[in-house]
Amino acid sequence: MFAFIASALSFCCCTATASLFSSWCGNDKPSNVPPSANSGRKRSVLLLALSVVVAFVFQYAVAPRLQPNEVAGYTPYIGTYLVETWTGGCTELSSDLVVVCSGNSGVYRASFSAFAFFILFGIAAWCRPTANREAWPAKYILFFFLCVGTVFIPNEPLFLPVYLNIARVGGFLFNIFQQVILIDVAYNWNESWLQKSDQAEIDEGVGKGKKWLGAILASCAILYIGSLVGIILLYIYFGGCSTNDAFITITLTMTVLCTVVQLKFSENGSLLSSACMTAYATYLCGVACSKSSNAECNPKLGETSVGNIIMGLILATMSLLWTGYSSTANKRVGGRDEDDATDNVDTTNSQTDPPKEGGVVVGGSYGATPANEPLSERKSITQDPAYFNNSWKLNAILALISCWYSMALTGWGSIEKRGNIANPDVSETSMWMLIVSQWIALLLYFWTLVAPKFFPDRDFS
């Protein structure tokens, strides 16, 4: 009797543990229901967010304790080995900079783990299109062991300088991708409110859509006024230095040029998208000026800018959400829309599908659609292989994001005792990367305005 009760309790505990772990990994469905087609993207984004947390822990909690003058430095075997492993390539620096250097190497370890993970499963998704949404508990375990394994790998040569240079290239490529995301969001915002205005005219009567047009104009006014105030403040606080003056003047000139071109020449452009780009360019200019390590050009050097931190987190989160959850991203990185893929599935397939009973897939492959699943989920889970063929692109983008955040946390690999946990990337390299990113964003937006004029036979929608 007791043996029976014990076995029953152990079964319940094991089942509950498995269910809890599966839910933590992002599966909100019963174990007999396969994950939806978009679940792989969401879990990938969650894993990337976890890798950022690991990077912070390595940089500000682990690295300072793996120094020659800490307890680990006097611990035989494992302690001394870890100290030598984490300070390799940094010993020629001063003691303060050794801590910074080893902290940077901690970030590279977490970033490299995520980078290797996404590259590996990008290849797997290339070979097996549905691999991106399968076996996620095992994938999280693999990522955990990757992070643990990198702790014992010496800095040289894998992290310094091999992965450092790879991350610089990957981070720069993601900077370009991030600008494309922002432009896409700006255009979609304007189009969404215009559609709401047109729909209000149809549903509520003539003149009812003006409230949405008024909202567009009000948003434009707020963004332009805020940008103008920002430019003035930049001249006040960061002016007087030739580099900063050049950055601010170029920002003002390029944003005015884009707005004029949009108003006079562009048929596809929108004032709201121009206002968004103007505000974003002003923000990037201010952040770039605040990253200068030259005290003459940066009177705020050594201070923590809460506003810049919040905006940086918002933009990074926006990029992650766009990549993981946006329907637009689904078309951009997935190759086709869910509806398009679903429409191509022959409705007669139900006659040849394996039988399904009570939501359990019987005799079918993992990924088939359960009979009792809601229609919205059934549309997103399709047997059309073309829907998954480009899922490797998502892994490639997340690999680039892994490179980018390692550069953002380490000042693009520069070793300077200027930053802190709230503002870690104060360096000339960070300053130039930010301002170049701004120029790329404005040039890309300018191209979206003039390209339809140069190539009228092409679709730029």
TrEMBL record:
Q: What is its main location?
A: membrane
Tell me which UniProt keywords the record has, alphabetically: Membrane, Signal, Transmembrane, Transmembrane helix
Where in the cell does this protein reside?
Membrane
User: Region Disordered: which residues?
Assistant: 332-363
According to its UniProt entry, this protein's organism is: Cyclotella atomus
Give the family per the record.
Answer: Belongs to the TDE1 family.
Q: Which Pfam families match?
A: Serinc
Q: Which residues cross the membrane?
A: 46-63, 107-126, 138-154, 212-238, 245-265, 301-322, 394-412, 432-455
Q: Where is the composition biased (Polar residues)?
A: 344-353
Output a single Gene Ontology CC term carried by this record: membrane
Q: List the membrane topology term(s).
A: Multi-pass membrane protein
Q: Does the keyword section mention Magnesium?
A: no
The entry's protein name is Serine incorporator
Q: Which residues form the signal peptide?
A: 1-18
